[in-house]
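Sync notes, pocket subgroup
Present: LS, DG
LS reminded everyone that the earlier model was apo-only. Rerun requested with FVH included. Inputs:
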Amino acid sequence: MTQNTLEKTSASLLGLGAMGTALARAWLAAGHPLTVWNRTPARSTPLADEGAKVADSAAEAVAANSLVVVCLLDDASVEEALAGTDLAGRDLVNLTTGTPAQARARAAWAEERGARYLDGGIMAVPPMIGVPEAGGYVLYSGSQDLFDRHRETLGVPAGTVYVGRDAGFAALHDVALLSAMYGMFAGAAHAFALIRKEDIDPASFAPLLADWLAAMTPAVHRTADQLRSGDYTQGVVSSLAMQVAGTPTFLSTAEQQGVSPELLSPYFALMRRRLAEGSGEEDLTGVIDLLIR
Ligand code: FVH
C-alpha cells in the first residue's frame, strides 16, 4: 500500500454493472481503497485484479466501510440488495436512477436505519467516468454534511453539483435535464425526417443542425428570467403570435415531405391554446403554465 493510498478515503461500492464498474475503476485509479460487491460475483473478478477487495455479500461490503455507494439497476434492486445489511452509522450514497419520490422514500428508509443519505443523479455515460475533460457530473441532494465530508472522494469519477437538502432534488434535476434532451432529440428526428428523401447528405446537414441548436439554447436563460419576474413579455424576440402564424408552414412542409407531424403537433397545439388566451405579445414561456396540472 502506498502513502498515497493511505491518505485516500476508503469506500464500498455495491453494483458492478457498466456504470458501477466505471466508478470502481476511477476510484481504484485514484488510489481509494475499495471494497466491491455484485449480485453476480463474476463481475468482480477484473476489479479484484485491479486492487479491489471483493465482499462475499452486500452485508459484508456495507460493514467494510462507513462510505457506502450503491449503483444498481433501479430502486427495487437497492431495496433487495440492502435488505439484511446493517446501515447504522453509514454514509449511504445512492447513485441509482429513480424518481424524486423514490429518492425521498429511500432517504427516510435509510435514516430510520441510522444512516445518513445522499442521492445522486449521474449526468454521464460510463466512458465519461474518470475523464474530467468529458464534462460529466453527478447531481447530489440530501445530507449536506455527508456531501461536504465526501466531496473530494465523490468528485473523483466525475464533477459534483449539490442541488439541495431535499433528497428528491437530484432525481428531479436529472429527469428534467434528460426530458429536455429528449425534446431536443425529437426535434432533430423531425428535422432529419424532413430531408431524408432528398438529395441532401445527412452528414452535411448535421453540423448545421448542431450549430443551430447550440445557438438557440441560450434562450433558456430568458425563459428563466421571465418565469422569475412573471412577465412573459420581457425581452421577447419572437412573439407567440408571430410564431403561431408560422406553424402552417411547418405543417405543410411536413406534409409535402411525407413526414408525420406527430412530434411537432402537440407543441403547436399548446402554442395555439396560449395564443387563444390573449397572450400573443408573450414569448413561448406561457406554454409552461399550460403544462402544469
Ligand atoms: N449506463 C448508463 O449509460 C447510465 C448513465 C446514467 C446513469 N445510469 C444509471 O446507473 C445505474 C446503473 O446503471 P448500469 O449502467 O451500471 O446498469 P447495468 O449495467 O444494467 O447494471 C445493473 C446493476 O444492477 C445489479 N442488479 C440488478 N438487479 C439487482 C438486484 N435485484 N439485486 C442486486 N443487484 C441487482 C446488476 O447486478 P448483476 O445483474 O450483475 O447481478 C448490475 O450490477 C442505473 O440506475 C442506471 O439508470 C446508467
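DG: DSSP finds 13 helices and eight strands in the chain.
LS: The chain has two domains: 3-165, 173-291.
Action: DG to write up.
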